[in-house]
Amino acid sequence: MQKVYNLLGVLGFVMSGTMAVMGVMAYTRVPSMVKNYASELKLELTKTILDQVPVPEVPELPKATGPAIPFK
After folding, report:
1. C-alpha to C-alpha distances, 51 to 11, 39, 40, 47, 48, nearest whole angstrom
2. Pairwise CA distance, residues 21 & 36, whole Å
3. Could you tell me if residue 32 is inside a domain?
4. How many structural domains compose the chain?
């Protein structure tokens, strides 16, 4: 029976260590994953909005100007 208890103790220690390591990895990697996801989402939303809303063409700038408009 002692062997079973020892085995359960070792398995509990391994599980605890694994959860601690996974928690540290998640804590360090989640911010970069969220940043990457937000960047991709921003690009996708920008493309979708530009496809739906027509962008007017900018007229050419005049090469010369005329006289001032007189006041009445």
Report:
1. 56, 19, 17, 6, 5
2. 23
3. yes
4. 1
- Segment 14-66, tens digit of pLDDT: 999 999 999 999 999 988 999 999 999 999 999 999 888 887 888 888 888 87
pTM reported for the whole predicted model? 0.48
The two tokens of residue 57 are: 């063409």
- Taken as a whole, the chain contains a residue count of 72
Instruction: At 24, list the tokens.
Output: 């540290």
- Give the helix ranges, DSSP H, for 1-72: 2-52
Q: How far apart are CA 50 and CA 46, in angstroms?
A: 6
Indicate the DSSP class of residue 59.
P
Residue at 39: amino acid letter: S
User: Is there a domain that residue 71 lies in?
Assistant: no
Q: Quote the domain boundaries for residue 6.
A: 1-50
In a domain, 20, yes or no: yes
pLDDT of residue 50: 86
